[in-house]
Amino acid sequence: MQEYEASKFNMSSMRAGVSVREIKHNKNGLRIFKLRINKGDRLLFTFDTMRIRPEYRQSIIFLDYCHHDDQAMQGRTIGLHSQDVLEYEPIEERIELEIDQRYADFDYDPNRVITRVMDVQTMAQLLDDREDRAVYYLNDEQFACLKEQDAPTFIFGSAGSGKTTINIHKAFILATQPMNIGYFTYSNYLVEDAKKLFHKIIEQSPEYRADDLIRRVNFHPLNEYMSATINQYNVVTYEQFRTWIIERQPLLLRQLDLPIYDIWKEIRGLIKGMIPKEWLTYRVNIHQKKIPMDLVDVLIQKGLAKRSGDDLQLQAEKLYAAKARFLDAYETRAILLMHELLDEYLLTHPMIDENIYYALDEQYCVYSRQSREWLYELTLRYQAFLQETGLLDENDLAREFLKKVSQKEMALFDFVIADEIQDLTEIQIYCLIRLAKNKNQLLFSGDINQTIRPTYFHTGRIESLLKTSNTHLGFIKHQLIKNYRSTKEVVDLANQVVDLRVEHLGRQKKHDYHEVAVREAKHSIYYFNPAQPKEVMRLLETAIQRHYVAIVVPNEAEKRNFQQLTQLKGAIFTVEEIKGIEKDYIICYNVMSYYHKEWERILTTDVKYQNQYRYYFNLLYVALTRARHHLCFIEERVPSLLFEYFRPHFLMFEAFDEAELKLNQISTDNEFYKEAKRYEAHELYEQAILEYERSNLAGADQDVKRCRALMLNKEGHHLEAGHALMQLKAYELAAKCYRQAQNQLLYLKARVFSDIPFQTLKAEFEQEGIDLVSFVYDREEPISWVKRFNRLYMKYVFEQMKGINRMIDTIEKMKG
């Protein structure tokens, strides 16, 4: 690559020490070259191809690494140490001929293979540590999503289809203009991954000023952004909700007889997270709202409103329908009034009205009237608990944030990008829509087939929310069907899940599609017969010792059962936990069996268009699509009809064989440590602790202690977590815990120990109306760490004095 660049991208002028020959007579007109590595190895590449977009035309495209003992000509990674000119021996001529014959039919299509874009330095890093830090070349399907549109855009994409990569490229393109772009996603780790990829694209685009591009794109986890905006950081997690309901509501919990996570899902996604715009009566007092009488008269004449005394009731459906044509001034004012009434409802109702909840059909809620009454009563008690303790959950946070937006107390973005939108509740998505100055400047991406989190996500309802917010009729939609993550056999199985869902639930045109695999592989899906418990344990015990394997169970209950079986915490993932991770090898343990009753009902009764059953298909889909190469099922009670349906995809095993099951690669200490870091970034602290312990590396005990502290914080023990992190000198993490504990003094202490500049601390506290100097020095009891604060303060004062001295010198010179 260095020689190619040095020769001004002219292959013929490269120095003689690089031994390159061209493959003769390629049937597809592709010029393929062979770089000699040693007697038997060749690196195949092409360049100046018309198959890629013009901006990449001067690139080398590396196609394959050929080894003469490798009959399949699989790619390998070998360092290049010598470029000496050697005379070809007869055996090498045979190898040359063999390669020419094998690659006579070879073709390169960037739409059907994974292409990574990297420079020389990045390639060297990849060879050294195998980290995936390359930028991906966008195929034509992906590139089309970047086209500028005067309309909001929604990218539907399967698992591993490159949605995030497209979003980052879009952010980069927008940032080349003087714009303020908001990039949001649900989790911290997705934000960090997005930032890394964005910076990588910038590195490869030296024609732009990096500082300008970085300044224009604001990457945020949505909840953290909302928390910072309203200055409220103690947001209740699922773990805290679980503790509250077990300790404080045992009777209702027994009456409901539902898994706690299902209760959390109903409250978070529906009772508190739903926007019931279709069920509201948009009634307003004419005099209180000071509605002009000419507007009242015109709306009544057009049939867009009805009057009853001093009340005017807007006809919402007719007003929405009016958006299909040109809106006159009266209709526009009526729609804006309707938006205002919807906001007022959302800000004054922390949950939907009970009558609305009880009246929802099975498309939204599957529970009986009695269960709904218990669930609503539980939600009322939960909300009372939040108000008593001054806490917020995610939906309360969104409502407080919406209040700021509605009162125009915060700046909006020129463009809003949101990834993994299916993980958000409707009220959170509504806030994102409201954050855009122009509601056409929105890019959302997600996959309804991966909706397993408590949201009740439905793209039709999101489009409806958008229609509520502006005059556009809906999204421009892109459907990505290429799967770059999993092998063809895994993708084929995922497509079978889709076919089964269509057969029993009916087709949804937007979401029921077949994926196309990019990765090829030999048979990689196994079914292990659970009839031999000892053999199953041998398999699981071996899998637990492999860093590249994840064992996945459907839910927390099965996870607890499994932990009792193995007496090992941190070795197992629920489908919810594994959702943001991909692994070379996935073992699904009772993912189908746990819900055998539900599967039997789906397969033996008429459940057409009952969307609540989509969850079980999604759960299976998410579990199996975490696998890149190998997938193994262990199922104790899988319904026979379900097993027979998938059986053609399975390679059956009854006895454990490490080699046959592709589990014979031994994991190193470094590999365990790297996995631990990844799990910690995903806030999977239990799993991270186990991997750190397995690594046996020096200092890993500190990592374990840090994860234990972060687990405490996730459970709501913010102060204890902060103290533990301070002892570990993890000051930034401690500061976050103290902020969630709403302890300003300890928060300041952690920030001071992080050596944050005084002017930054001063600005932070001023936003809360606190004078930092007075806060520290005007205290009845002295602060033990005041000397550390003094050093920051004195450095700041010294800099200020230097500025004053320069001003005095300038004035003296002017006098002279």
TrEMBL record:
Pfam families xref list: UvrD-helicase
Keywords attached to this entry: ATP-binding, Helicase, Hydrolase, Nucleotide-binding
Binding sites annotated in the UniProt record for ATP: 157-164
Domain UvrD-like helicase ATP-binding: 136-487
Record keyword Nucleotide-binding present: yes
InterPro entries, A to Z: DNA_helicase_UvrD/REP, P-loop_NTPase, UvrD-like_ATP-bd
Keyword Hydrolase attached: yes
Designated name of the protein: UvrD-like helicase ATP-binding domain-containing protein
